[in-house]
Amino acid sequence: MLKAVVFDFDGIIVDSEPMHYRAFQKVLEPLGAGYTWQEYIDRYMGFDDRDAFREAFRVHGLQLREGQLQELIDVKAACFQEVIAAGVQPYPGVVELIRSLSGTVPLAICSGALRSDIEPVLDQLSLTGAFDRMVTADEVQVSKPDPASYLLAVSQLQEAFPGVGITSASSLAIEDTPAGIVSAVNAGLKVLAVTNSYPASELGMAVKSVDSLAGISVEDLRRLVA
After folding, report:
1. Local confidence band at 87 (pLDDT 50, 70, 90 cut-offs)
2. How many Cβ atoms are within 10 Å of 215's Cβ, its own excluded?
3. From CA 43, how far away is CA 49, in angstroms rounded?
4. Are 135 and 158 in contact (CB under 8 A)?
């Protein structure tokens, strides 16, 4: 029986990956560590900001000086805020699905983005308060595909809803990347994959892949965990 649903953020709720890419390039190109959109998809998508910067510096043979990583994260966060100020567009069906679940099934976000990246977008979409818990890069020290963020999300929902009987096995993750799926599966969750960022052939660990969340109902999700 479905006891909880955990949503990824980037690539599931909004098409924010191009926005993150532009923000990263504003920071990295002046340092000689920029990369193409295809390289972002192939190498960096799924990392949190910390590991994305570490990887870019490693690939380009650059050394991070003490304290520089946090400076880069802060500048990139400011750039991202500038990008999203022009407005964001949710993926089809996702807002309707979240609203149908909220208050009925315990909900969490599990994302490698910063909380400061997520909250303004939820506000723009009138989804503030729709999620019972949120695990972001501020709460965990490792990126997906490590299962730490999903394990924490389930733990937080268990604490918030002690009488519901939430377990990893009774929780469903909604993801769009191979790294996110590995993270959720290794934490014991079942996964519904959405082909917003990768083809279904690369999302094979999910119990089901769909092209869109449009038309997906609570009953559809329940059947995936039954």
Report:
1. confident
2. 11
3. 13
4. no
How many CB atoms lie under 10 A from the CB of residue 84? 17
d(CA 72, CA 62): 14
Full DSSP string of 9-40: -BTTTB--HHHHHHHHHHHHGGGT----HHHI
What ranges in the chain are assigned the alpha helix state H? 17-28, 37-39, 49-59, 68-84, 94-101, 115-124, 148-160, 178-186, 218-225
Cα→Cα distances 123→116, 131, 178, 179, Å: 11, 12, 28, 27
pTM: 0.86
Task: Give 65's Cβ-side CA count (13 Å radius).
Answer: 2
Contact between 5 and 172 under an 8 Å Cβ cutoff? The reply is: yes
Residues 44/56, Cβ–Cβ less than 8 Å: yes
The first and second tokens of residue 104, run together, are: 């009925």
Nearest in space to 157 (alpha carbons), one of 187, 185, 182: 187
What are the pLDDT digits (tens) for 158-185? 999 999 999 999 999 999 999 999 999 9
Query: Which domains are delineated in the chain?
Result: 4-15+88-225 (3.40.50.1000), 17-84 (1.10.150.240)
